UniProtKB/TrEMBL annotation:
Residues 800-812 have a biased composition (Low complexity). It catalyses: L-seryl-[protein] + ATP = O-phospho-L-seryl-[protein] + ADP + H(+); L-threonyl-[protein] + ATP = O-phospho-L-threonyl-[protein] + ADP + H(+). Residues 341-421 form the Apple domain. It is an enzyme of class 2 (transferase). It comes from Cinchona calisaya. It comes from the Eukaryota. Belongs to the protein kinase superfamily. Ser/Thr protein kinase family. SUPFAM superfamilies: alpha-D-mannose-specific plant lectins, Protein kinase-like (PK-like). Residues 505-790 form the Protein kinase domain. PANTHER family: APPLE DOMAIN-CONTAINING PROTEIN, BULB-TYPE LECTIN DOMAIN-CONTAINING PROTEIN. The keyword Cytoplasm does not apply. InterPro entries: Bulb-type_lectin_dom, Bulb-type_lectin_dom_sf, Kinase-like_dom_sf, Pan_app, Prot_kinase_dom, S_locus_glycoprot_dom, Ser-Thr/Tyr_kinase_cat_dom, Ser/Thr_kinase_AS. This is Receptor-like serine/threonine-protein kinase.
Length: 830
């Protein structure tokens, strides 16, 4: 789509031709006597969209598609022949009587065609200003009379004005389907639907399996997507009547916006930022682990704030306590007291939830909540009810059967009234009930869980209060200039409180040394344990990292990222306050002779997968899109349940919509984890993080450090050693001896293989994190791993010695210290 001089010449020639020949030029319409060839396009009347031939990046196949005309980044919104690419530039698109749009290849075979059963005397094809390509009779303007329109057959993009849903008259369902990959527009595994069964809600599906549910439409938005709110860019609604049910949205201003479903099944809402010339992700879903459909089973509730993310609703208990304790939540929970409809049931109110799946629901409008209750009570199979439309507060939604896929959304969740045996119900509408974390093991664990719940509740109350007070006072003065920083809600803590919590930063409370200063354990007044990271006074570089970390992590939220609770900026003190991680960091376990024995394979695999998910979120699904740049065992923290959480964002970099990396003269990171192109040339990208992840993975499997690994037989480092074993089909010899034989060898082999794919020399060869997660979780053939980068300790040492200035490393024995060094590229590349 780039214009070269030749193209411009061609365009000029074409416009001359237009005058003399019957060829469509600079117009939005093709008539039955006209056609367009590869290289020619038609443009919508207002110049917003263009239709023509294109190749996806990294592909030479030709497709007919529609893209934004005014937007500088090539953005394809629709593809005609997505399943049958043209292999040359000889395709021709034309309109034929009585009303078909057809694409032919050079042997005149039809590659793709629109379809319609009606015929008209004078068919034309027109690209409308909305991006809708329509086949119609020349003088027909009524959309009802169009023979065919691309809006009925969208690909991966949901544009303003499209109707996502069902037309009961024609039987047509309009839904979005992902591309197979970023290079291949053929239909991929994922689809996005508006499902009217029971009561409308949208789903992301993989094949026929449900992956993510938006929750039912509640009049204002979707119950499970609280971040979709009224905004100046677009308005949205669900339309329901006897003829059709659909979800649609329209533009309010001039800013372009689109919704896409990525090849990895993530729904993303993009808006165009005219200032920076890039697409910005405004919303994305699924967004956290609790968004995975039905994770906690029937009557389970998912809460990302809990370390054990699934809990049973209050007054319910795990159906199979053993499985539940082993994190298999699929069987869900059952009632503590069985229902007895005949002798009169009641209801209990649960607040702050994404409403359960409405597949088996019914609804009525115009009823009050009291009437809803009466109606539900009368029907023994009605298990719950709630308000239908929260904007007007009227109508009822009734559930029949089990309640599935509930998630705690404290701030914007909804109320639901669940049927209970009379002894359990709070007939007079007492205070709302929450989740109970159900652990069935020792009393100690029950106590632990209880104190956790208390802590969380207190923290939430406290946070809300603090935010109110503090937002009026001092706002962080750190460079929050663009409009996306409005949503930064970082509570400020008073210095006196931190000093008290850490006992004046006492040495006894020191946990270690972080990227830019010491880290202390603190105990807030309410008994809440926190980790306090204090910026060293004389660290200039530290200040940048401090700001960077505060900005980055305040905007990130994922189960596998450490959570920032607040910060403190007073005088010279700059402090960040985090959730406390009782199990310290991963290096504390895997490299320690005794502690590593407590990490069995399932736990190690769980940790590997968690890190991968956290990293995927950073790279792809978070709003900032972040390259961490210093991923290592010491930066993976472990919570009470040994869930991994990525920490230390001091050197992380955010990157824009389309770029995937950059170049720096200041290389920061840790030896042994740095990819060759980054350590040597200062090139960092998501693929340099993938490299570090691969190193980490192999360290977790082997229980050995990459750095300083010695083997009698050869000069390789751990990566080289692993690769050697893998080539000789002896990869299992890499496994940490402490694991004994108690591991699933196919899982282990697969992990090693994936680790080696991640550390390949060429960044292009390394998979991205979504593929990593897929490969770890699924059987199937993996590509052959090529030689790893930095597979001998020597080549790293060589690179290191030639650097001009460099900080010294290794302080305490066994402690991982961050090394930074600064150097010009020329010193290295000879
Ligand atoms: C293809 O169709 C065009 C126009 O209809 C015709 O001129 C050409 O000869 C045909 N080519 C072949 C190989 O049939
Ligand atoms: C044209 O399409 C037909 C049918 O798909 C195919 O068999 C043929 O090989 C194609 N011709 C070229 C030159 O690609
Ligand atoms: C058009 O094609 C689609 C899929 O290719 C099919 O589902 C639909 O029924 C067809 N419509 C008509 C009118 O033939
Ligand atoms: C976007 O920026 C371009 C120039 O950079 C300007 O011509 C255009 O009017 C702007 N569009 C909007 C919607 O602001
Ligand atoms: C709806 O009801 C059917 C039949 O009882 C059941 O098989 C299905 O799992 C239910 N679906 C949901 C989402 O509750
Ligand atoms: C709902 O109630 C309002 C006022 O009470 C009435 O005007 C409206 O017609 C009712 N709608 C339905 C669908 O019953
Ligand atoms: C209860 O509701 C279900 C679903 O709407 C309906 O099929 C059933 O007939 C109702 N039962 C009674 C007793 O009203």
């Amino acid at each position: 789509m780039k214009k070269s001089v030749n193209d411009i010449l061609l365009l000029f020639l074409l416009s001359v031709l237009c005058l003399t020949q019957k060829i469509a030029c600079l117009t939005d319409t093709l008539t039955a006597t006209q056609s367009i060839k590869d290289g020619e396009t038609i443009i919508s009347a207002g110049g917003s969209f263009e239709l023509g031939f294109f190749s996806p990046s990294m592909s030479t196949n030709r497709y007919v598609g529609i893209w934004y005309k005014k937007i500088s980044i090539p953005t394809v919104v629709w593809v005609a022949n997505r399943e049958v690419p043209l292999t040359s530039t000889s395709g021709v698109l034309e309109v034929i009587k009585p009303g078909l749009l057809v694409l032919r290849n050079d042997t005149n075979n039809t590659i793709w065609s629109s379809n319609s059963s009606t015929s008209v005397p004078n068919p034309v094809v027109q690209l409308l200003e909305t991006g809708n390509l329509v086949v119609k009779d020349a003088n027909q303007e009524d959309p009802e009379m169009f023979l065919w329109q691309s809006f009925d057959y969208p690909t991966d993009t949901f544009l303003p004005g499209m109707k996502l849903g069902h037309n009961f008259v024609t039987g047509l369902e309009v839904y979005i389907s992902s591309w197979k990959s970023f290079e291949d527009p053929a239909p991929g595994k994922y689809t996005y639907h508006c499902d009217p069964t029971g009561y409308p809600q949208n789903f992301v599906k993989m094949g026929s399996s449900l992956q993510f549910r938006t929750g039912p439409w509640n009049g204002l938005g979707f119950s499970g997507v609280p971040s979709l709110q009224r905004n100046p860019i677009f308005s949205y609604e669900v339309v329901m009547n006897s003829k059709e049910v659909y979800y649609t949205y329209k533009l309010l201003g001039l800013t372009s916006t689109r919704f896409t479903l990525s090849p990895t099944g993530v729904g993303q809402r993009w808006t165009w930022d005219n200032q920076t010339g890039s697409w910005i992700i405004y919303l994305s879903a699924p967004n956290d682990n609790c968004d995975s459909y039905g994770l906690c089973g029937a009557y389970g509730g998912c809460d990302t704030d809990n370390s054990q993310i699934c809990g049973c609703l209050d007054k319910f208990s795990p159906k199979y306590p053993d499985k539940w304790a082993n994190r298999d939540w699929s069987n869900g929970c059952i009632r503590n007291v069985a229902l007895d409809c005949q002798s009169g049931d009641g209801f209990t109110k649960y607040s702050g939830f994404k409403l359960p799946d409405t597949h088996n629901s019914s609804y009525n409008t115009n009823t009050s909540l009291e009437e809803c209750r009466r109606i539900c009570l009368k029907n023994c199979s009605c298990t719950a009810y709630s308000t239908l439309d929260i904007s007007s507060g009227s109508g009822c939604l009734f559930w029949f059967g089990d309640l599935i896929d509930m998630k705690v959304i404290s701030a914007a969740g909804q109320d639901i009234y669940i049927r209970m045996a009379s002894s359990e119900s709070d007939s007079n509408g007492k205070k709302g009930k929450k989740l109970v974390i159900s652990l069935t093991l020792s009393l100690a664990m029950v106590l632990l869980a209880l104190s956790l719940v208390l802590l969380l509740q207190r923290r939430k109350k406290k946070r809300a209060k603090q935010q109110k007070e503090e937002m009026q006072g001092h706002i962080l003065s750190m460079a929050y200039t663009d409009e996306h920083h409005k949503d930064l809600e970082l509570p400020l803590f008073e210095l006196s409180r931190i000093i008290k919590a850490t006992d004046k930063f006492s040495f006894n409370n020191k946990l270690g040394e972080g990227g830019f200063g010491p880290v202390y354990k603190g105990l807030l007044g309410e008994g809440q344990e926190v980790a306090v990271k204090r910026l060293s006074e004389h660290s200039m570089q530290g200040l940048d990292e401090f700001k960077n970390e505060a900005i980055c992590i305040a905007k990130l939220q994922h189960r596998n990222l450490v959570k920032l609770l607040g910060c403190c900026i007073e005088g010279k003190e700059k402090i960040l306050i985090y959730e406390y991680m009782p199990n310290k960091s991963l290096d504390f376990f895997i490299f320690d002779e005794t502690r590593r024995t407590s990490l069995d394979w399932p736990m190690r695999f769980h940790i590997i997968q968690g890190i991968a998910r956290g990293l995927l979120y950073l790279h792809q699904d978070s709003r900032l899109r972040i390259i961490h740049r210093d991923l290592k065992a010491g930066n993976i923290l472990l919570d009470a349940d040994m869930n991994p959480k990525i920490s230390d964002f001091g050197t992380a970099r955010s990157f824009g919509g389309n770029e995937t990396g950059a170049n720096t003269s200041r290389v920061v990171g840790t030896h042994g984890y740095m990819s060759p192109e980054y350590a040597v040339d200062g090139l960092f990208s998501i693929k340099s993080d993938v490299f570090s992840f691969g190193v980490l993975l192999i360290e977790i499997v082997s229980g050995k450090r990459n750095r300083g690994f010695l083997n009698q037989g050869h000069q390789f480092n751990l990566l080289g050693h692993a690769w050697k074993l893998y080539k000789e089909e002896r990869a299992l010899e890499l496994v940490d001896l402490h694991l004994g034989n108690s591991y699933n060898s196919s899982e282990v082999l697969r992990s090693i293989h994936v680790g080696l794919l991640c550390v390949q020399q060429c960044p292009e060869d390394r998979p991205d994190m979504s593929s990593v997660i897929f490969m770890l979780g699924n059987e199937g053939q993996l590509p052959e791993a090529k030689q790893p980068g930095f597979f001998m300790e020597r080549n790293l040492v060589a690179a290191k010695n030639s650097s001009s200035t460099q900080a010294s490393s290794s302080k305490g024995a066994g402690k991982e210290t961050k090394e930074r060094f600064r150097r010009g590229k020329k010193n290295i590349v000879k």
